[in-house]
Amino acid sequence: MKSINDEVLSAVRAGDPDTLVELDQQGLLIGPDESLDAYANRLQTLTKNIHKLQEELRRHGRIEFLNTVLDAKDAIPLSIFRASQGTNRSLYDFEIDWVPGFYANYRMGFLFAGCAFYSYDDFFAVFVIRKAYKKRERWLIYKRSELMAHELCHIAHIGFHATNFEELFAYQTSESGFRRMFGGMLRTTTDTYLLLGSVLLLLIAQIVNVFTREPPLWYTFPMPLFFGLTFLSILFICLRYRHYWKQFQRARKQLAPVFGADRALPVLFRCSEAEIRAIAGMKNADGLRDWLKSKPEASVRWRVILAKYAIQE
Fold first, then answer.
1. In this structure, are residues 23 and 40 in contact, taking their beta carbons and an 8 Å threshold?
2. DSSP codes joined into one string, 47-82
3. pTM: predicted TM-score of the whole model, two decimal places
4. 235-271: per-residue pLDDT in tens?
5. Where are the domains of the chain?
6. Is residue 84 a contact partner of residue 149, using CB atoms and an 8 Å limit?
């Protein structure tokens, strides 16, 4: 990671394009509507938080962090980060190695594979994966490199506060075509609770139904209500996902002739959700080019994007 010192922060506040592009390459993306001062302040806080964490680990050997325990001897080495960098680099053109990463199982469920704990306010993040990955590349259905590439996408997007397309981007890192296609269907924990809650409610209702009612009444009211609730929950999630998937693919297709097929996805990754929808709705490439050329006037983020990825005429 490029050392974020006073010189770098001064260059960021001055809008130095080379510095901003280099930080972008490290996965320190500027968020939508974020000013240079706000971005510099977040980078400064990130550096302080990482140094504070490292100092506490040096002094105590292990610390409690949120719901888990981080042990200095279980820190993920840089070589492991590099194994996942190829995926993030080829898909989205960034490489993150600055996130403190650890192997940990403490207070984690049996099915826990890994996750990133991060703050929207100061860029701070800690990456945790199951200790099983310390000795092997694969655990259950997930490879270590795939899991890390997935979570590092979320860390790169810290400043975006995204929901609708966030899991779509992250699941493109998967080697499985099924997960790339359908992995982003459940966007948040609310979606998971909705789906599992409706299924669990149906199961409980069916158990009560079978043990308390005569067979001729098993499929009479109120059972159709529970079946309908489950069906509508699944239908809602599927139709909403189909809508966003089509917008995602349409926007990617629109960007290809403007930036080149290999750069369409990296540019899309740096767009806000509103911009993805706008790009998907563009009528032609010329209109899109005009729209893109107007963006740097009011957006630092777009000045960096267009400095890194040139528009093809």
1. no
2. HHHHHHHHHHHHHHSEEEETTEEEEGGGBPPHHHHH
3. 0.90
4. 999 999 999 999 999 999 999 999 999 999 999 999 9
5. 1-161, 162-313
6. yes
